[in-house]
Write a structure and sequence with these properties.
386 residues; elongated; alpha+beta; 18 strands
């Protein structure tokens, strides 16, 4: 789960991370009220959407009068902001964050993430703040420093010293900052804490000028206050509906819908579809214990994507029984008035019973014998439709 910049800053401030003063606004009038409350003669108006690259897309405005501030807020609110991370449709700006100006001497990058291969948290730092870290990795990988943190010992002073040395920063201030970030990361069950840019002010202070936080969905039950920060308007409606039914769904750019049980099998299914010349429209894992009803919901979710022109169901019945899947597929196909080619490959527990259910349904379901056969048939069926 991701949250907005202003929410991330509020959380980090609780752990002692310095952030500029600011306030969220939903109208231009509220933005002017926030600026008046902050005082000063310059402010920054920031569009609040769950996507990076807002500055390059015109979503961050530096203003020097309340008139400019009102104009900036009016221009952003209600606008679809298109960045490199939103896709061509962009995201509607429903709120802006107004914060005080900052005297910037240097811009740096600092983040905490999970190194899944090493099974530990890792500090990532760079002198190239304000840029997308992926671009820095491509053009100047030597400017990225990674400092792993052993979970058995946690954050230690030497971690701060290594980051300070790499970025040319004051050691005590840097140690205090990375310690605060690590505490927030661990205590809030975060998956990512990113400050880009982390700025050194003209007075020498370290300030989080921007902040991004993502959280482990599986740990949200421990943090009802974090879960309450969820902004459903920022999430894909199909993916949001999937989570309500314990389904793992991620929308992709292709036109072949996939329904699979098991994340590994789902990824392999997408790979073999591509190797056969097709493009998957989604990742959808119905899980090992899916019910008939959940299969029906999954089917409806796939078909709610207007780009889907064919469907591949690929099930290996272990905990999941093939007859349950078959019943769900048949029921869903009848309920939604199936209008696209459907290829089904079943293997495992009660596979023969599952195949008989599909055969007796009277529906135009194409049976596949194996993994490769399923992918070839769905791609071929798609070509016939075209």
């Amino acid at each position: 789960m991701n949250i907005h910049e202003y929410q991330a800053k509020e959380l980090l401030a609780r752990f002692g991370v310095a952030v500029p003063r600011g306030g969220v606004a939903y109208t231009a009038a509220e933005a002017a009220e926030v600026a008046h409350r902050l005082g000063g003669d310059r402010w920054v108006v920031k569009a609040q959407i769950h996507a990076g690259g807002r500055g390059k897309a015109g979503g961050v405005k530096l203003v020097r009068s309340e008139a400019e501030l009102t104009d900036a807020a009016t221009g952003l609110l209600g606008r679809n902001l298109v960045t490199a991370q939103t896709g061509p449709k962009g995201r509607e700006v429903k709120r802006v964050y107004v914060e005080e100006g900052c005297d910037i001497a240097r811009e740096l990058y600092l983040a905490l993430s999970v190194d899944r291969a090493a099974r530990q948290a890792v500090l990532i730092a760079s002198s190239e703040g304000g840029m997308e870290i992926e671009e820095v990795a491509k053009t100047a990988p030597e400017k990225i420093v990674r400092v792993p943190i052993d979970p058995a010992t946690g954050i230690q002073p030497f971690h701060g010293r290594r980051i300070a040395s790499a970025l040319g920063l004051d050691v005590p201030a840097t140690t205090a900052l990375v310690t605060a970030l690590y505490r927030a990361f661990v205590e809030l069950d975060a998956a990512l804490v990113e400050i880009n840019p982390l700025v050194v002010t003209s007075a020498g202070d370290l300030v989080a000028l921007d902040a991004k936080m993502g959280f482990d969905d599986n740990a949200l039950f421990r943090h009802p206050d974090i879960a309450a920060l969820r902004d459903e308007d920022e999430e894909d409606p199909i993916e949001l509906e999937a989570t309500k039914h314990a389904l793992s769904y991620v929308k992709l750019d292709g036109n072949i819908g996939c329904m699979v049980n098991g994340a590994g099998l789902a990824m392999a299914t997408m790979d073999i579809i591509k190797s056969c010349g097709g493009m998957p429209a989604n990742f959808l894992d119905v899980g090992g214990g899916a019910t008939r009803e959940r299969v029906i919901v999954a089917f409806k979710l796939i078909l709610s994507d207007p780009n889907v022109e064919a469907i591949l169901v690929n099930i290996f019945g272990g905990i999941m029984r093939c007859d349950v899947i078959a019943e769900g597929v048949v029921a869903a196909a009848r309920e939604v008035n199936l209008h696209v080619p459907l290829v089904v490959r079943l293997e495992g527990t009660n596979v023969e019973l599952g195949r008989k259910i599909l055969q007796r349904s009277g529906l135009p379901i194409v049976a596949a014998e194996n993994f490769a056969d399923a992918a070839e048939k769905v791609v071929a069926a798609l070509k016939e439709v075209a």
